[in-house]
Amino acid sequence: MPETTSPANASATQEARITAALGARSVVLVGMMGAGKSTIGRRLSLRLGMPFLDADAEIEAAAGMSIPDIFESRGEPDFRDGEARVIARLLDSGPAVLATGGGAFMRKETRDRIRDKAVSIWLKVDADIIMRRVKRRSDRPLLQTADPEATVGRLISEREPVYRQADLTIASRDVPHEKIVEECIEALHGLLCRGGAKETNDRIGVTP
Ligand code: S3P
């Protein structure tokens, strides 16, 4: 019988190639709060057959309290130190899809670790989408300000030049999650298995 490749098989092969090329490395999602790092990360991990880890959840488990409570009782610098330690531990715990908190990639030591042990994807998101997604929620201590919109604008302009250092950039927007996951898979495949990410970034209209 002639061998046929169904679309489902072809995509399974693409995912198998990605995990083989990753070897011991993880996939790390970076970007602003509200970018969908946990939602997309969880779905991406299922597609790749890799465990999913959420740095914020791990920080809360390690501290035995919520992120707002950590900010309140210990302050942001202490939270950042804990965040860097937790991400270092998670990157050493074997290949996984890891969603990081929005500020994590700003620390050079964490960026260096991610570069050594993972492939990073920046989920790039516009301010208006962030505002829509985080509105009515009080679990982002950095946004408990008089003018959260201005705070988001400031954080975006401070952080985007740093997020841009990620290996891949995918535009997070209001489309079905599976579409964003598919674009992550294609971008990973392009980078790891075809030797370049530019084509994928160009195709989805994102400037690398
Ligand atoms: C933060 C983002 C949050 C959390 C903390 C600080 C930030 O994570 O780590 O509130 O500095 O942008 P998410 O990006 O998952 O919301």
Structure description:
This protein has 208 residues and is of the alpha/beta class. Helices cover 57% and strands 11% of the residues. The chain contains 10 helices and 5 strands, in the order αβαβαααβαβααβαα. A 5-stranded parallel β-sheet has the order 2-3-1-4-5. Helix 1 packs across helix 9 and helix 5 runs parallel beside helix 6. It starts with 6 loop residues before the first helix and ends in a 5-residue tail after the last helix. The structure holds shikimate-3-phosphate.
Summary, kept brief:
The chain is α/β, with parallel strands linked by helices. The protein is 57% helix and 11% strand.
Distance between the termini: 45 Å
Query: Structural class from helices and strands?
Result: alpha/beta
Report the portion of residues in β strands: 5-15%
Bound molecules: shikimate-3-phosphate
Rg from Cα: 17 Å
Low-confidence runs (pLDDT<50, min 5 residues)? 198-208
